Amino acid sequence: MMLLAQVSDTHFDSDPHNAERVAAVLGYLERLPQRPDAIVVTGDITDRGSLAQYEQACKGLSTDIPLHILPGNHDDRANFRRTVLELPASDGPINQSFSLGLLTVALLDSTIPGEGAGSLCEQTYAWLDDLLARTPADGTVLLALHHPPLPMYSTVVDPIRLRDPQRLEDLVASDERILGVLAGHMHAMGTTLFGGKPLVVAPSVASSIGCAWEVDTPGEVPIDYAPDPAIVLHVVDGSRLTSIVRQVPMGGRIPIQPR
Ligand SMILES: [Fe+2]
């Protein structure tokens, strides 16, 4: 059994508010009697992609739990490479993978530089084909990317979701090793099926964005900074994926029923 924590949309913006929320989340994970085997951060690490924000993010996301980060539409590939990956700056897609036993996690770069919407480019599909060709036949695979490939009933995020998702959906459906797809971007929890497999969209650590039925007037962004940060804990047991949402209380814990 592998335990994978998904943390999303941290939006480090040079102010302390979001950094404190990330610190609470990492503290919660680090103090668990059973710590996660790894943490995946599914994009929008920074709010505006500046070097200063990445420096804050690198400090804020430091933990002794193995942590893997993919970019979102608020990120900047060149600055992400220089700071998070300590590589020379370049604008090519940032695709990465790691393994936990027989589980392979593919972190796909779904960003389009300068745009809010997402897409997987030919280079990324070629990279994924190669990774799957090298993955053992009896292994399992999770795909992680920032942009949900399906509408999630969000007036904010649906117009800038993953474009042209059919190719990815066909790939997910056709490879029995792929257990599910993890995404962020929505700032709310949502699940559905994609290629017959679970699509799990994680909430944001930074803020909550309401769904279509929470919008009063067209164009309103139903964002709320009050809710506690939330994360998803994914259990991979054999070929079964179980995903559990957990809020991390900023105000501490009350272990006795209040009267
Ligand atoms: Fe975001």
UniProtKB/TrEMBL annotation:
Gene3D superfamilies per the UniProt record, alphabetical: 3.60.21.10
GO molecular function terms noted in the UniProt entry: hydrolase activity; metal ion binding
InterPro entries: Calcineurin-like_PHP (IPR004843), CNP_phosphodiesterase-III (IPR050884), Metallo-depent_PP-like (IPR029052)
Keywords: Hydrolase, Iron, Metal-binding
A Pfam family annotated for this UniProt entry: Metallophos
Keyword Transport: no
Residue ranges of domain Calcineurin-like phosphoesterase in the record: 3-188
Similarity-based family: Belongs to the cyclic nucleotide phosphodiesterase class-III family.
Name of this chain's protein: Phosphodiesterase
Organism taxonomic ancestry: Bacteria, Bacillati, Actinomycetota, Actinomycetes, Mycobacteriales
